[in-house]
């Protein structure tokens, strides 16, 4: 068996500093210790990881924030794992699911070919005694995802605890409000479901994140001093009054805080066009996340900046252009403003048609990176009783000087604050003053 560390993965800019080997369906894959498993697989050109449940169309990572199903796989016998949320470890075994035959072929894909206009399996052989029941059983098996874990998990006790202040989200707004609360004498716990903290900053490659360096330093210093407790890979699942349901590696708990601050950021914009779920099509933010880790989303990517997008489109483009200079003619990037109309390909996108102000243009590409208007992640705030206002990009949380309800607050992109360092600082300082004033 060849040693994957003998060569650089085809989509990596540089070799890993701490290389390890994981496997995908038994095949060795080079990875950087601790990086998301999905990132290592993209770097190795293993892009087809999942299949759509019904038609078994190929799926690949598209968001790198656990908001899609393109990276679902079995990891060390645990099914349906979001591999973008799993840090790579030596010897980790990744197995693709929901397929019959090879990972990239999947013989069950024939369902899609036989029913090009869609299929309602409830109506197939309807009314024929016995046959319909057999079809229902077959459809349920075909549409299933991973098999149950090899072993049952040991039960873990739930618990209750009380804290001073909780911030949900460790992006720039979450970091800024945490720092301001610490300055006001509060003890703060910051929760985030990602592997590392930083939120949208982790999607800015190269010098694009320099404007946020002072904020990052202040936050990291507060964590090092113990003024802020940072918990990554921890999900805030629901809120009941001021009881926050939190699920992490330790299990489930109800956390009651004197003040809860939502800094949940926004969801990547998704555009409706033919082939938009094909492997190789992802958000520009996801591609920036990869690039900041030295991994290319494609060797000739097309960045499509749609209406309402472009907040960091130019920064992404500049980062890709720098990569082009570093790697020579093997890598090129095209940045275009417009609307994708159609993408084609099989297990990876091969071309895209874009409507631009100067007419329709077709691009040969191995990655389409969509930068569309981001939608505020308002869900937890709405559970807490927030009023939301609908805008073209989504639902924006309305607050009274940052306040949603008694002891519940919201900051940042959630309430419409631009992803810009001075605006984020001003919003955090203003909200922290209102929190301190009751």
UniProtKB/TrEMBL annotation:
<dbReference type="GO" id="GO:0051536">
    <property type="term" value="F:iron-sulfur cluster binding"/>
</dbReference>
<dbReference type="InterPro" id="IPR051691">
    <property type="entry name" value="Metab_Enz_Cyan_OpOx_G3PDH"/>
</dbReference>
<dbReference type="Pfam" id="PF13510">
    <property type="entry name" value="Fer2_4"/>
</dbReference>
<dbReference type="InterPro" id="IPR036188">
    <property type="entry name" value="FAD/NAD-bd_sf"/>
</dbReference>
<dbReference type="GO" id="GO:0016491">
    <property type="term" value="F:oxidoreductase activity"/>
</dbReference>
<protein>
    <submittedName>
        <fullName>Sarcosine oxidase alpha subunit</fullName>
    </submittedName>
</protein>
<keyword id="KW-0560">Oxidoreductase</keyword>
<dbReference type="InterPro" id="IPR036010">
    <property type="entry name" value="2Fe-2S_ferredoxin-like_sf"/>
</dbReference>
<dbReference type="Pfam" id="PF13450">
    <property type="entry name" value="NAD_binding_8"/>
</dbReference>
<dbReference type="InterPro" id="IPR042204">
    <property type="entry name" value="2Fe-2S-bd_N"/>
</dbReference>
